[in-house]
UniProtKB/TrEMBL annotation:
It is a multi-pass membrane protein. This is Amino acid permease 6. It comes from the Eukaryota. One of its GO terms (biological process) is amino acid transport. The chain crosses the membrane at residues 20-41, 47-72, 107-127, 170-194, 262-283, 303-324, 367-384, 390-408, 429-453. The keyword Transcription regulation does not apply. It is found in: Cell membrane; Endomembrane system. The keyword Transport applies. Gene3D superfamilies: Amino acid/polyamine transporter I (1.20.1740.10). Carrier protein involved in proton-driven auxin influx. Mediates the formation of auxin gradient from developing leaves (site of auxin biosynthesis) to tips by contributing to the loading of auxin in vascular tissues and facilitating acropetal (base to tip) auxin transport within inner tissues of the root apex, and basipetal (tip to base) auxin transport within outer tissues of the root apex. May be involved in lateral roots and nodules formation. GO terms for cellular component: endomembrane system; plasma membrane. Keywords: Amino-acid transport, Auxin signaling pathway, Cell membrane, Membrane, Symport, Transmembrane, Transmembrane helix, Transport.
Amino acid sequence: MAPESSFIDHGEIKRTGTWLTASAHIVTTAIGSGVLSLAWAVAQLGWIGGTAALIVFSLITLLTSILMADCYRYPDPVHGKRNPTYMTMVKTILGGVQYKFCGLAQYTNLFGCTIGYTLTAAISMVAMKKSNCFHKFGHQADCNISNNQFMAIFGITEIFLSQIPNFHDLSWLSIIAAVMSFGYSFIGVILSIAKVAEKGHHVKTSLTGLVVGVEVTRTEKVWNIFQAIANIAFAYTFSTVIAEIEDTLKPSPPENKVMKTASVIGITSSTIFYASCGLVGYAAFGNAAPGNFLTGFGFYEPFWLIDIGNLFIIIHLVGAYQVFAQPIFSIVESLANTRWPENKFMTKEYNVRIPLVGTWRMNMFKVIWRSTYVVLTTLIAMIFPFFNNIVGLIGAVSFFPLTVYFPIEMYLTRAQVPRYSLKWIGLRLIVGLCLIIALIGIIASIQGIILGLKTYKPFKSN
């Protein structure tokens, strides 16, 4: 038990976070697999559009993060009651109906991310095999490998991990995820810089990206632009953890003021990092930038560094899958236990001794439900193995409600902003613009998936 002096705020464990720790949490949460597609996104938009999109999304995210900081305590931003989680904040300020919509958006995002992580991890496994194949047999060798067997391997791994009790509470998981995500992102940036500095390096870039009539048709250009915007949106979908990060801060000075400082530092740092991946990646590959700059084989050597980068991605996503899946596991199990409290299938546990590990308390419902969930996400990833389209779809679906709509609605309600005032109109215009962008991104990503399915045959070797 923690010592008495560590307790504060009505018996809860003392919060010791500062602007520095909060900034670090924001950066480690933001830097993830979304950076892998940024070079491709910039290639579709060009130097002007790509740079503008990165800046605009960072400013919108910064604005909504600052607005959310004032919603942590309600109704007064300094002395009001704490809202320690995003969904608690929505329920307290906006009420039950909005709370249900928020839950739907959050769980849809979690579900989509587990599918995306399955696909991304498998692509990185394939990239490692291809990297060694190209190194051994030359860059022109036929090294095509199907993703399916690697998705199955990833799925089997997650089935086992999903049975570990309280997996998401393991503190080392976040540390490993942060180290791995920074690791592969830095490797991608370093390889891009090395490629730009290569003697004789010359790739085609332009202010507006891929050239209509030469590299793409006019229709393809339009769809690619919308998909690229959705991909960039995916990189900025981390506002849902702002409340949890603010809940780690010391109560003095006021959490909202410290959180605003941390948001400026954290989001600015993340944007600089995103720009490094997207813009330097575009400089390295030009208009031919691959969808994932560590697996698209713009880089062939040093093959061992490419392998390390992809290994970092795999390790990161193995843990990240569980972080995103555990809330889904928990809510279904909680609902089932509430609905059938006397059902032994739901509640009975069996002690299973595992050599060298200890005793595992097995519940049959958990085993079957969690295994079924992992199998489902693996099958969907196999059927729709389109990295940029999946990333874009997740980004478009989650960015608008979770990063824009709910934060602005909560702020307008908490601050009692007068209707049709300049501030009210400005925030409403941002909501409307982001809704249009999200809808266009969703349509473009679905169109890309449908187009891909015309030539792709699920469950068959490439």
